[in-house]
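Predict structure. Chain length: 149.
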Amino acid sequence: MKSQYAVGSKAPAFSLKTSEGNTISLKQFLGKKNVLLIFYPGDDTPGCTAQLCSIRDDYKTFQKTNTVVFGVNHADKDSHNHFIKKFGFQFPLLIDKDRKVSKKYGAIKYMFGRESIRRSVVLIDKKGKFAYVKRGMPEDKEILAQLIG
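Prediction complete.
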């Protein structure tokens, strides 16, 4: 049986606010850009900082592949804005307060009986289909290999 997150499967629609209050939806990029979603558990934590700083450092390469990048977690705008400013992220962080989008993308885990965001990297192509899905913290070169070929 094919996983709903399998490469080639249709990605679920989503719409979330950025820390600046803008609404980002998957449909606005269909036919135009690839979308890279980085689901991460917490702002300004060691693993998440390392992962997002790596994306920051390779951001121009992602842009050259016609890809928009978004970090996604449940933190509020103040937490996101502090994290963005502290580390100089050029990409928006999306607020998934109720974790609905994280659930749609299988980016939820349970620790000590509590729901938490599961570190996940999801690349959606211009047709709205999964091009890459990996749980954990893959290296940027692995993600970029899906874009560059």
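Summary: Residues 40 and 119 are 5 Å apart (CA to CA).
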